[in-house]
Amino acid sequence: MKKLLLTISCLLVSVVALAQDTDAVMAVVGQKLDEFFEAGQAPGVSVSVIMPNGDERTLVRGYADVEKNLKMTAETKMLGGSTGKVFYSVVAMQLIDEGKLKLDEPIYKQMSDYKWFEKLPNARQLTVRNLMRHQTGIPRYVFSEKFQKEVLVDADKVWKPEELLSYVFDDEPLFEAGTDFAYSDTNYIVLCMLIEKVTGNDLYDEVQKRVLDKAGLKAVVPQNKRSYQGLAQGYNAENDPFFPGKALDENGKSRYNLQFEWAGGGLVITTHDLALLAKRIYEGRMFNPALLDEYLNGVDAGRLGGQWGLGVHIERTPEGTVYGHSGFMPGYVTNMRYYEKDKFSICYQINTSDRSKMSILRQLPILGAIVSEELNK
Question: Which CATH number fits domain 2-375: 2.40.400.10, 3.40.710.10, 3.90.600.10, 3.40.50.720?
Fold first, then answer.
């Protein structure tokens, strides 16, 4: 009995010590975040860290809605932009493990019953690998001037994936498939249409089952409507050529269409849930860990720097290799990062995409370096 009590006592001491260590690290992070936030002009910021031992902390500063005097909280949601692709990449990796998708077989045979498929650039050379790794040579549909005008016409329009693809039908490919890199949301539209085809299910249903439930993410929801409880106001530049001003009207409804993004991003998130997902993915807990090396097998990401794997941006930093993904939607900017050597993840979001108020983005990566430094003391 005495041995049992001694063991329990030692465990309690260890748990308390770990919590104190986490609090000490986050105190340093919080001080630096105060400095960055006060020097910048962002309305609000949220930063979540998942420590090597699994401890979770979220720091917030500023406002979710300046005009309504609503403070940013750990539960505040924002649009995740392209970080949604990380969720779809996990679904794809699980399907690869199940043999329902093949990385290097042309998808033409599975998709050719769509009459429009041949109109895609490099249609017959498209594979799951070059779609996930942005090596298809397919241009970005969101850069089409016609699309940028038409997406603003009706905020309630429900866009079909093939409508989005139609903006690049018969375009010249940027390069021969598999020979270069060019980041393109269009790749994930095609990939996720394939996912729906092989599973017979809605993409968001697959994400719920294969990602959210598996990782224990409670706050992530599909971006398929115009209003969300707890969504921060997004502030874009008043002179932005695509969508100027606030993202939400006085009733909290989006002033432009959110549903169109779909597999290019298409999720409303919190920093906590994205940081938690990052740790689970890059530690091999979201799909067969035997596939992790394949997932992280990157190619030169060109002007984006670093390398790009199967849905992951890979960077070499003074703190070691960092895996992650960034995201943008008008009014919101997101970044998730996992530090391989120190085994912690960090995610940060700000609720502005106004370049005159985004200076804090240049400083926020320093927070990861601070966590690494503190852990290695």
Answer: 3.40.710.10
